[in-house]
Specification:
By secondary structure, this protein is an alpha+beta fold. It is about 40% helix and about 25% strand.
């Protein structure tokens, strides 16, 4: 007797979402002596296997100040949050209470109307959002970190980040906390080093680097992607100098005769000055900077 063929096993098909644009990014925020510096990479994941580039920092002006934002997570949700934040600040009169209270009210409403609708869904199906917000009014600039339905004020002298590289970036941000914070131009060098490290270590962080300084006087400075590339090259040279000379000399592995090695060490102050002069030229020379992109709010 011929037995019937076995029935094919039924393999359940996984429930897959349509591809969405995800900003698996690194957004950095620094409290500086003259304002807030925000930095971001430009890589955007369009699917599991493809990627693109996108501007992740946004700036808009409201009746009583200037706002700069940078978001990580679902790209459409970030764009909606940025748009609604712009409308919120344009419609809200100058606050007589803590600005953090106003932002928390906005965050709770936005969360309830968007992400809150996914209550009970699997985590991978819920769109996510995290954002840094720099706000300038009354000749001062504040830095906030928005995750879920709460907004956190970042105290003066402290720094923060959101995005895929948050865990790797956090200890590096602690290393650049100073008793007297540098200016936005000075902090840019430290931020560039951190961003380069994030690009090397974190999947989904890459592309170009963009940076915006929001000064206490409401002036906004865009450093420009071309100049940021030159700053990144300078930082890489400084890192190579530190590894190839400082560590080599201290460890005794500098392959030079004693007299030659001492001559190289004696020239180190000049090397430092050359690095410093190149950096000052990059952040201060109007021929290199996109000066037409720097705006002053009258």
């Amino acid at each position: 007797m011929i037995k019937p063929f076995p029935k094919p096993s039924i393999i359940p098909r996984p429930h897959l979402r349509l591809p969405v644009r995800k900003r698996m990014t690194a957004i950095l925020g620094f409290n500086c002596s003259d304002g807030v510096l925000m930095m971001a990479d430009t890589e955007e994941s369009t699917s599991l296997y493809t990627k693109s580039e996108a501007d992740k920092l946004a700036r808009f002006i409201c009746p009583y100040g200037t706002v700069v934002t940078g978001g990580s997570g679902d790209a459409h949700l970030i764009d909606c949050a940025t748009q609604e934040l712009s409308e919120f600040f344009r419609e809200t009169p100058p606050p007589h209470v803590d600005i953090k209270t106003k932002l928390n009210e906005f965050a709770q409403t936005f969360f309830r109307d968007t992400t809150g609708q996914y209550s009970g869904f699997a985590t991978e199906l819920v769109p996510s959002l995290a954002m840094l917000i720099a706000i300038n009014f009354n000749q001062h600039t504040w830095l906030f970190r928005w995750t879920h339905n709460r907004v956190l004020l970042i105290p003066s002298g402290a720094h923060t980040s959101v995005g895929a590289g948050d865990a790797q970036v956090h200890p590096m941000l602690r290393d650049v906390r100073f008793l007297m914070p540098p200016s936005c131009d000075g902090m840019l060098l430290y931020g560039t080093r951190i961003m380069l490290q994030a690009k090397r270590m974190v999947q989904g962080v890459g592309g170009k680097t963009e940076a915006i300084a929001l000064h206490n006087g409401a002036r906004t400075h865009f450093y420009g992607s071309k100049n940021m590339r030159l700053v990144e090259e300078l930082v890489s040279e400084i890192e190579d100098f530190n590894t190839g000379l400082a560590y080599a000399y201290v460890s005794g592995s500098l392959e030079l005769e004693d007299n030659a090695a001492e001559a190289v060490i004696l020239d180190v102050p000049n090397d430092f000055r050359r690095f410093r002069d190149r950096y000052r030229q990059l952040v201060g020379d109007p021929r290199l900077l996109n000066s037409q992109m720097s705006t002053d709010r009258q």
